[in-house]
Amino acid sequence: MGAERLDLFISYQKADTEFATKLATAIEGKGEGLKVFFAPWDIPAGSNVVKELDAGLSKAKYFGLVMSPEYLRADWTTGEASAAIYTDPGGRLGRVIPLMQTHCQLPPLLRFRRYVDFEGLGFDLGVDYLVSVLKGRPLPRGRGASAATVGAGVIEGRPPALSQLDASQPDAVADCLYPNVFPVTTRPEWIWNAPTRMKSPRDLFQYYGHGRSVPPFILAAGRLFTFADLSKANHPFTGVIEEYDTAREPWQSWVTEGDRSKRLHWLLDDCLREKLRGLRLAYERKGRKYYYEKGVLKEGRFKAFSRGKGKDFVIDYTEKGGTYVAHRAVNLRFVLLGSEPYLRVESGWVFKDAGGDLIEGRRRVVLNAKFTSGQRNTANFNEIRFWLWFLAGDEPVLSLDVGGGQSLAVRVSQVPLEVDFGILGDERELSPIRGAPDIHFEDEDSPTEEEDTDPDVVDVEGPES
């Protein structure tokens, strides 16, 4: 499947194939330029079905779930629905659209979403209604499109829920918005480079030997690029570069040019490497997430906030008869906004089976949905706050060594943006930071503090799953 954007992912059970085919044909046949993902059309014979479904789910703007009793009983479609709900758990964006082909009792995470009632409206009017939503147009009026027949949703006495469009509106309550990108307040002005005989980063690390700190660098076109000042007599790459052709280039020249801009991103991300390496964090390449392996940390739980019971880095469900281990994880990456760098922080999870292998494919999608779909924005941001606290302690700035006595400083203290509206359901205050973390590893003999066992303390920082 190509890289084009999809308007609608149609999720259906085999028993509803005829309806799903008719629906996909009608939507693309409307001449509106709409593109749907429909498995029989978009998954070639012999291809990896899970990979193609994952690609379709990631590219779709909306998710249409063809609801029927058969759909709700099927494992495969439950996974697709979970992945869809994960993208819009609260329904604020209106991305998940139940398509009621045969009336059935919707599960709790779909119950509050307005559905398209094909059984009550009829097929043609139902398609018109759905296309209007996909195109962002006003909904059809007249022709029997009353509140009772367009899926306002009275099923077995349940009262009507918010419509899709209503649920996507902001609160009329003043609020503070907190970002997940944090500005770099101090950075080098120059990028230095020189020829090198090193062919790969592995060659350079072998040259330095195990345990020696290596400043951020990248290798490209036979040269080494770094923030460290290579003109100094005691620069950290002595013996690695050829001194006869040392040069420097201004930061701005790397921001505006395509290939250099990519290399600048790589060089900035490398600034995180030594910091995270010192904290013994592992790296999951596919999701670009950092996490702790089981048995690395001596502490079982870290308490970042003045309230709450704390957060575990590893939750082993195999000890209670489960089949997987959940690792709290974070994606850290620098981005350029204009010419200035910002650190983007995204929380998440890494899952492994009982044998220690990474869980991939559909099961990974379902577990991600299970752990995160119920979290509101405050809980998500508290996960980000937790990771920043772990990396920087109670300091307002995260300092990253770039070599040669220079550093990259990221302001990680929360600076809210005050706005005259809010996000539906997020009227919660952020609890204050408790203090710097005291980190010890299993192979160290350092004593640890006793775990807080106050029975009156409850977790108010969001679901711990």
Give an account of the 3D structure:
- The chain is α+β, with helices and mostly antiparallel strands and 465 residues long.
- The chain has two domains: 6-169, Toll/interleukin-1 receptor homology (TIR) domain (Rossmann fold, 3-Layer(aba) Sandwich), CATH 3.40.50; 181-419, no CATH class.
- 28% of the residues lie in helices and 22% in strands.
- It contains 14 helices and 19 strands.
- The protein has helices spanning 17-28, 39-42, 49-59, 69-73, 75-87, 108-111, 118-121, 123-135, 164-167, 201-208, 251-255, 258-278, 361-372, 377-392; strands spanning 6-11, 36-37, 60-67, 96-100, 116-117, 175-177, 181-186, 190-195, 218-220, 223-226, 247-250, 282-284, 289-291, 314-316, 324-337, 340-353, 397-403, 406-411, 417-419.
- The strands form four sheets. Strands 7, 12, 13, 14, 15, 16, 17 and 18 form an eight-stranded antiparallel beta sheet that branches.
- β4 (96-100), α6 (108-111) and β5 (116-117) form a beta-alpha-beta unit.
- The radius of gyration is 26 Å and the shape is globular.
- The protein starts with 5 loop residues before the first strand and ends in a 46-residue tail after the last strand.
